Amino acid sequence: MKLAAFLLILFAVYGCASSSEETVLIDTPGGNHYPASEKPSSSVTETDLTASPLNLDNAITFALENNPSLKAANSRWEASAQRPKQARSPEDPMLSAQYMTDSDMDKIGVMLSQKIPWFGKLSLMGRIAESDVRIEEQKAINERWRLVGKVKIAYYDLFWINRAIRVNEEAKGIISNIEKIALLQYENGKTGQQDVLKARIELARINNEIDALKESRTSAIAALNQLLNRAPAAPLGEPEMNNLSFLALSLEQITDLALKFSPELKMSEEEIRKFDNEVALARKQYYPDWVFSLEYNRINSDISGKDNEWGVQAGINIPLWRRKYDSAVREANANQKASQYEYQSMKGKTIFDIKEGYVKITNAWKVIELYQNTLIPQASQSLAVSQVGYQTGKSDFLDLLDSVSMLLNLKLGLYQAQIDYKKELAMLELCCAFPVESLTGESIPKEAVPKTAEKANCSVTGAEVIIGENTPSFEYKGKTYYFCCNNCRDLFMKNPDKYAKESE
User: Fold this and answer.
1) Given pLDDT bands bounded at 50, 70 and 90, which one contains residue 221?
2) Residue 368, in any domain of the structure
3) How confident is the model over 63-107, as pLDDT tens digits?
4) Residue 459, domain member (yes or no)
5) Do 426 and 483 belong to one domain?
6) What is the domain extent for residue 494?
7) Domains of the chain: total
8) Long-range contacts of 442-449 (CB under 8 A, 24+ apart)
9) Is the pTM of this model over 0.70?
10) 76: closest CA among 30, 140, 125?
C-alpha cells in the first residue's frame, strides 16, 4: 500500500501542470512596456494625425498601436510563450478497466499507468521551447523596428513630395513675373514675342509637374495610411522636417549598438543555444523511458468469496535500433554547426550594413552642406543678376530661364539630400534596433554601448568565440578554456591534455 501511495504521488507530480499564468511583456522601440494581450490606451488620436504639421512621433506611436502585421507578430510571440509548459509536461496517465467472468468467478480490474521520460528529457524539451519563445520575441522586436523604419520612410517621401510641390509653386510665381516682364518688353518693342511664348511654355511645364506631384502625393498618403491601418484616402497633416544635425555617434559606437541590440543577431544566438539543447536531447534518446503501473482487482469467487488484489508494474522501452538515434544525433550536430555559421554570416552582414550606412549618411550630410552653403546661395544670386540683366537688355531670355531652372533643381536636390540622410538614419536604426538618431555622444546609456567584447578561440576547433554568460567553458589546471559549443567542451573533457597542448 505504501508503494501504491508513492506511485500515486509520483503521477500527481508529473501529471499536474503549473496553474500560474505568466504575462508576456512587449518592449516597444520607445522603451515602453505593455502586456501583449492588452491594447494600451491610445495616446494618439485621428485628430492628431490630421493636424498640421504632422508629428512623426505621433505617426510612429499610432502605427505601433494599430498596425495589423505588428499585432500578428506580437500574437505569435504570445502564443509561443505557452509552449514551454507543454514541452515540460509528461504524457497523460492512462486509465484502463477490465471485466472477466467464468462459471465460478467474476473479476473487475482497474489499472493506472504513467510514462515517465528519462531524467533530463523534459527539461531539455522545455529549454528548446524557451528558445523558440525568445526567437519569436526577437522576431516581434524586429517587426516593430521594421515598422518604425517603414513609417519614417513613408513620412519622408510625403514630406519630399509636399516640398517639391511648394518649390514648383515658387518657380511658377517667378516664371509668372518673368512672363509679365517679357510681355512688357514686347509691348515696348524691346524683345520679340518668342520670349512671352517661352515663358508660357515653361509655365505649362511647371503646371504639369505640379499635377503629377499631386497624384504622387495621393499614393504617398495611401502608403503611410496603410502602415497606420487607416483608409487609403484618410486625411493626414503635412509632414515637417526638424532641424538637421549630424549623427553624433561614431562608427564604432553604432557597431557596438548593433552587435548588442540587433534582433537578427539575437535570433541567431538563440538558434545556437536551441540546437545545443537539441544535440543533448538527441543523445538522451539512447536512454530508455519508464512506464509505471498501479493495478487494482476485485474478485468475487464462489469458492473463496470476495477478495481484493493490488499490483505494481514497472517497465522500460528498449532503444534497440541505435541507427536511428545515431542519425538523430548527426542531424542535431549538423544543425548546430549550421546555426553557428549562420551567426557568423549574420554578424558579418550586420557590420557591413552599418559601415555602408554610415558612409551613405556621411556623404548625404556633405551634399546637404554643399547645397545649403554654396550652390543654392550662388544660384539665387545668379537668378537675381539674370532678372536685372534681362530687364536692362544685357542678357537674353534663355539665360533667365536657365537660372530659374537651376535654382528649382538645386532646391529639389537639397530636399532630396535631406530625405536621403533621414532614410539612411532610419535604416541604421533598423540594423541597431536602437534610436541612434535621438542620441548624442553624451546621452548614450552606459548599457547601450558595451565595452569591446572579450574574445577567445575555441580550444578544439580554433574558431573565434565571444566570451559571455552562456559561453561553454572548462577550468583545467588553473586555466579557463572556452569552446564554440557544448560538443567541443565534451571532447576537451575526454582528453584535456591533448587539446590544452594544441591550443597553446
Assistant:
1) very high
2) yes
3) 999 999 999 999 999 999 999 999 999 999 999 998 888 777 788
4) no
5) no
6) 464-503
7) 2
8) 444/249, 444/253, 448/257, 448/260, 448/261, 449/253, 449/256, 449/257, 449/260
9) yes
10) 140
